[in-house]
Amino acid sequence: MRPTSQHRWLTLAFLLMTLAVLVTLSRPARLSAQAGRPATAAVRVRLQGAGRQIPNDFLGFSYEAPVLTRNVFNPQNRELIRLLHQLGGGTLRFGGNSVEFTGWSRSGEARMAGERAVVTPADLNRLFAFSAEAGWPVILGLNLGQDNPTLFADEAAYAVRRGGQHLLALEIGNEPDLFMHNGLRPRNWGYADFRREWEAYARAIRARAPQAPISGPATCCAAGWRWFPRFVADERSKVVFATYHIYPMSAAPNVPESSPHYASIANMLSPELMRRVAQKVQKLVGVAKSQGLLLRIAETNSASHGGKNGVSNVFAAALWGADYSFTLAEQGAAGLNFHGGFACRGYTAICRSGGHYVAQPLYYGMLLFHAAMPGRMVPVRVRASGNFAAHAVLNDNGNLSLVLINKDAHQPIVARISGLGSYARAAVLRLVAPSLRARTGITFAGHAMNAAGNWKPGAGQMIYRHGRTFQVSLPAASALLARFEK
């Protein structure tokens, strides 16, 4: 049957509708392709502005005090020692909330109610033998919560005698500004009470060991922020350096998702979080410096309350950890100690799994930081259309290490680098993983840390100057170290 004009009209309408549907369906694909185009970043290095030397022991680990009673930190633990050696020099700090429930006894017998662990001379002997083998000195926390200066001055005296040069400092108490909230002191206990008790410990320690190195105040929070300037002004002659604790986020169950302190990957990698940290550390460093003291952030990590699975123990934490370490160094901090344990959850950088000590994602961020050393921080100006950070270190041999971090989950970035004087080439070492949420498959310079704690970097990709600039690309959720040579 010959089609009528009505049939032809219906056929045409159907074809037009089909075409409209196909166009609509094609739009997401085109938008997705556009979203995947690289963002750009202009990175300008100011070589003339090289500042303070980064201490060789800038990096560090922090542990709860009862771990001293376990057979972990002993000189036969070659895997753990190799993992420390891969990070160069550093410090080991033992304290945490549990130090206030950790006793000391020459005989090993419990002496106080509520003790969860008792440190003995054998434990300190083992610790300082490990410290000597690893080359990482110790910050040893003392129990202030029980207010027993005589007992813990005895522990301090033993540590000074046994530790020698491997004892970096004694720390009296942990976060005393929270004692009023955790039942260790009455609600009306304040700075004057803390200072009186702290000084009683200091006098008892120095009576037994006159040259004992002491640090403080080891505060953390709202009250501690107010106490810190008072403490460094009052006790500057009694401490070898000042300490403070920072956790930019909280994994506590009562923190709402709308809070910038809520433990999420988005918050952890946000530029706003890093700006808050930088401002806080800058103020603390300034206060300490005004009294002739260096500042160490002696306990820190991504989120308090042990961190959060899926946030603190994934590849995003590696990118955060590198950015965080460089940010603290830029603000003048003398070092940091990432808190953790040996269970493979939460925020620890090294855990125990399958009979081995295993590098967790955060460890790779520390490895990237160390690979840029030694040297002095150099100012870097960044203009970027993505979530991007850059840090530079002028090495002791005159070469330059430039670290670029792309914290965006989906957007690659092309960085154009200028201000590099006569540098003509660079070797690029990349830190990559399958995604921000990856726990495995992480490599730096082409290799992962093996089960024995060994890592050997590859040679890297060479890039060369084109005119006045270098250009390098970063995939989404990745970082790189460019080592510039003349």
List the helices and strands and how they pair.
Blueprint: H1 5-35, E1 39-45, E2 60-64, H2 78-85, E3 91-95, E4 102-104, E5 117-119, H3 121-134, E6 138-142, H4 149-163, E7 167-172, H5 191-208, E8 214-219, H6 222-235, E9 241-246, E10 249-250, H7 265-268, H8 271-290, E11 295-300, E12 303-304, H9 315-330, E13 335-339, E14 350-353, E15 356-359, H10 361-371, E16 375-378, E17 380-384, E18 388-395, E19 400-406, E20 413-418, E21 425-432, E22 443-444, E23 461-464, E24 470-474, E25 478-485
Parallel strand pairs: 1-20, 2-3, 2-13, 3-6, 4-5, 6-7, 7-8, 8-9, 9-11, 10-12, 11-13
Antiparallel strand pairs: 1-17, 14-15, 16-18, 18-19, 19-25, 20-24, 21-22, 21-23, 21-25
Helix pairs in contact: 3-4, 4-5, 8-9, 9-10
Describe the structure.
With 486 residues, the protein is an alpha/beta fold. Helix content is 31%, strand content 26%. The chain has ten helices and 25 strands.
Structural class of the secondary elements? alpha/beta
Instruction: Trace the largest sheet across and list its strands.
Output: 2-3-6-7-8-9-11-13
Shape: globular
Into which percentage range does the β-strand content fall?
25-35%
Q: What profile does the largest beta sheet have?
A: 8 strands, parallel, barrel
Q: What is the end-to-end distance?
A: 84 Å
Mean pLDDT equals 92
CATH architecture of the largest domain: Alpha-Beta Barrel
- Ranges with pLDDT <50 over ≥5 residues? 1-35
Instruction: Tell me the number of helical segments per DSSP (H or I, 4 or more residues long).
Output: 10
Work out the number of β strands.
25
Can you tell me the CATH class of the largest domain?
A: Alpha Beta
What is the domain tally?
2
Q: What is the CATH third-level topology name of the largest domain?
A: TIM Barrel
Please bin the fraction of helical residues.
Answer: 25-40%
Spatial extent as radius of gyration = 26 Å
CATH superfamily of the largest domain: Glycosidases
